[in-house]
Amino acid sequence: MSDSQLEPKGAPFDGISSLQFSPASSNFLLASSWDSTVRLYDITANEEKTKFDHRAAVLSSTFSDASHAYSGGLDSSLRELELESEKIHALGQHDDAISSVRYSSETNAIITGSWDRTVRFWDPRAPTAQQSSHQLPERVYFMDTVGHRLVLALASRLFHIFDVRKMDTPEQTRESSLKFLTRALACMADGQGYATASVEGRIAVEYFDPSPGIQEKKYAFKCHRQTIDDVDHVWPVNALAFHPTYNTFASGGSDATVSIWDHKVKKRLRQYPRYTSPVAALAFSADGTRLAVGASYTWDEGEEGARSAERPALFVREPGEEVKPKGWGA
């Protein structure tokens, strides 16, 4: 089993906030960072292809197609990034930081979630880009979409599940199965549910179908923990990503490790060798042949930890059989 991985040149200078591969090619990777940049990498050429400078930390970025990306962050502005011409267009503004940017292929819209307690829909081609704004009870911390579903992780451990075609009221409102602050959220590739992770080294697996039989399947488990000299160390889980084909998922934690899980049989399939810094972001390519890992300081130990932190690094691995559930296709 190969542990080969590439480290693309030109990693961001500050924390890596999000990673996403192009929907058209596993060769292009988008990374947003607290250093106020969005960078596009060409993995095969092992180079930073282009860099977009912003006015403040970028918390999230996403592709809509091979040549357009969108970004948002602490300056509250949504930007369109033209990847070929390297032009930036400001599309509009929230009243507070944009925490999450997603593209919905279902509605062909850019969706933004913000600390201003709204989620907004945008059409970059329209004369007025903002198409709608929907009020929420809390700040949006994380957001993901699958098919027609939009899942929002709100500040007070609340989750709102919407149908993007009917945003007037959530389909479901749930409280987190985890006791502590949510650190990551990702929807299953098969559209059946989602996983969330928290600061106390736990992951919860949830299903959309509200029927009691399906809800009985949901569970939470401990992970990213270590016993050192008889002392239990618990690390935040900062990142989750589902494999697009096999529906297994990767988790990344402040213990600087990445694990691959088969949530159906509740088993860990693999843990990769430790990185030099906490794992802050993860992304599988659309064809599942690559896994991007963003390793950077996640402020778990405050200013003091920042002084001795390693500089951020990006890695791209080519996962093998470990991402495939046992007996797949048998």
TrEMBL record:
Q: Which InterPro entries match?
A: WD40/YVTN_repeat-like_dom_sf, WD40_PAC1, WD40_repeat_dom_sf, WD40_rpt
Q: Does the keyword Repeat apply?
A: yes
The alphabetical list of record keywords is: Repeat, WD repeat
Q: Which SUPFAM superfamilies did the record assign?
A: WD40 repeat-like
Stretches forming WD repeats: 16-51, 91-132, 230-271
Q: What is this protein identified as? A: WD40 repeat-like protein
Q: Which organism encodes this protein?
A: Lactarius akahatsu
